[in-house]
Known about the structure:
This protein has about 575 residues and is mainly α. About 65% of the residues lie in helices and about 0% in strands. The protein is built from 25 helices and two strands. Helix 3 crosses helix 10, helix 7 crosses helix 21 and helix 11 runs parallel beside helix 15. The N terminus is likely disordered.
Amino acid sequence: MKKLQRAHLRKPVTPDLLMTPSDQGDVDLDMDFAADRGNWTGKLDFLLSCIGYCVGLGNVWRFPYRAYTNGGGAFLVPYFLMLAICGIPLFFLELSLGQFSSLGPLAVWKISPLFKGAGAAMLLIVGLVAIYYNMIIAYVLFYLFASLTSDLPWEHCGNWWNTELCLEHRGSKDGNGALPLNLTYTVSPSEEYWSRYVLHIQGSQGIGSPGEIRWNLCLCLLLAWVIVFLCILKGVKSSGKVVYFTATFPYLILLMLLVRGVTLPGAWKGIQFYLTPQFHHLLSSKVWIEAALQIFYSLGVGFGGLLTFASYNTFHQNIYRDTFIVTLGNAITSILAGFAIFSVLGYMSQELGVPVDQVAKAGPGLAFVVYPQAMTMLPLSPFWSFLFFFMLLTLGLDSQFAFLETIVTAVTDEFPYYLRPKKAVFSGLICMAMYLMGLILTTDGGMYWLVLLDDYSASFGLMVVVITTCLAVTRVYGIQRFCRDIHMMLGFKPGFYFRACWLFLSPATLLRLQQASRPAMDWGPSLEENRTGMYVATLAGSQSPKPLMVHMRKYGGITSFENTAIEVDREIAEEEESMM
Length: 580
C-alpha cells in the first residue's frame, strides 16, 4: 500500500473534473467550485486582473524618477535582483495560498489560526489605502474633464487663482535654440492650477484646519466610487470582464505617448538623462532599498489582492507560469513608461532651456504639474492631455477593483451564510462608507490628510504583514508541508530557488536592518542652537530641508530647499564612507 501511495505522489492523477482551464477547452469552469462563492468565468480573467492590479500608477510616476535618481541604467541591476529575491517568490507564495485554500485574506489563516491577526492587519491596511487611492482617481477624473476644452485651463496665467508669481514657462528662441529661463521665485500656471484651484490649499491652515469641502472634488470622488461599485457589483464575474479593457487599453495609450515622445525634439536628451548608468550609486545601500521598495509596492504583495484573485481560480490553474508573466511584464512596463515620460521631459527641458533635473519630479507632482505643463507645449494639447489622464484612470481603477474585492471577499468568507447571498448590497455599503470617510480628502486641506495616509497606512505595517506571512507559512506551517500542498495543486514541488527565498532571502531583505539601524532625522542635541554641522536644521519643527524635500517631491510642490537637501544627503553619505 505504501508503495502505491508513493507512486501516486510521484505521478498525480488528475481527474477530468480538475483539469487545468487550458486542458478543459470550453468546459464550464464553475464545476470546480462551490456554487455560491463564484469564480472567474473566462480563461484570461485572472491573468488580466493580476496585470491590471500590479501595473498601476506607480509604474508611471514612481519608477522613472527612482531610476534616474538612483543611478540611471545602473538601477536596473538592483531592481531585477530584488525582483528575483523578493518579488517573484513572494508573489508566487501569495498566489499559492489563495488558490490552494479558495479563501480570502482572513479565512486563509486556517493554515495557522494563531496568526490571523496578520490577515486583520492586511484588511486594515488595504482599507486605508482604498480610501485615499480613490481620491487620486478623483483628481484624475477632474483633470480628464478639464481636458475636454479647446485650451487647457492650466496653460496661461491671468486666471482668478493665479498670483503675481505665476510665469508661463515657455522658453524664447534665438538662432541657437531656447534661451534659458530664470525660474527663480516663479511658479508655473500648471502648479498654481493644481495647488490653488484643484486643491485650493490656500483655504486651509494645516491638517488641523481642513477648511470647506470642495464640491467639484466631492462629485469627482462620488463618481469614482460609483464606477468602482458598478464594476465589482457581481464580484469577479463583472470585474473580470472589465479588466479586458482596463488592463489592456493603457498599453495602447502608453505606446502612443511613447511614439509621440521619442519623435519630439530634445527627446533623446531626456532618455539619456533617464538611462545613463552611474555605477558608483550601487555602492550605496539607499539604492538597493529603493529597488526593493519599488518591487514590493509595484507588485502589490501583502495587500491581499493577489491572494483574493487566486482564491477564485480552479484548483489546478498554472499560477507558476502566471507569476513570471505578471512580474516580468510589470518590470518591462515600468521601463517603457520611463521612456514615454522622460522623452517628453527632455523636450520640455529643451523648450525651457533648463536642465532635465529641474523639470523631473515624482508622484502626483509629475502627473498633475509637470506632465500637464508639458502637454501645453504640444500641438493638439487637449487631445494628448485627455489620453494621458485616461491612461492614469484605467491604471488606477484596476488596482482599486482589487482593493475593494479583497475587503468584500475577506468579510464574506468569514460570514458566508449571511453576506454571500447579499454580496452586491454589502459591496454597496462598503463603497458608501469609504466615500463618506474619504470626504475629508475633498476639503481645502485634504492633501495634508492624503499625505498622512500615504506615508503611514502602508509602509512599516505592510512589511510586518509580509514578513509574518512568509515566516508563518515556511516556519510554523512548515516549508515541506507547503511544498507538498503546491505539489498536490500544480503537479510539482517548488525548486531550491523558491524554498531558499521563502526561508531566508526574502525575509532578510525585507527587514532592511541597515536602514532601521540608522539614527532618526531628529537625532542630536535637543536645542536648535547646539546643532552644528550635519545636525543643522534637523530638529522637528524647524525648516528642515530633508522632510520638506520628501513631501514636496512626492506631492508636486516646488521648494528652494531641494538642492540643499541633496547636498545634506551627499555630505552624510561621504561622512559615513570616511568612517567605514
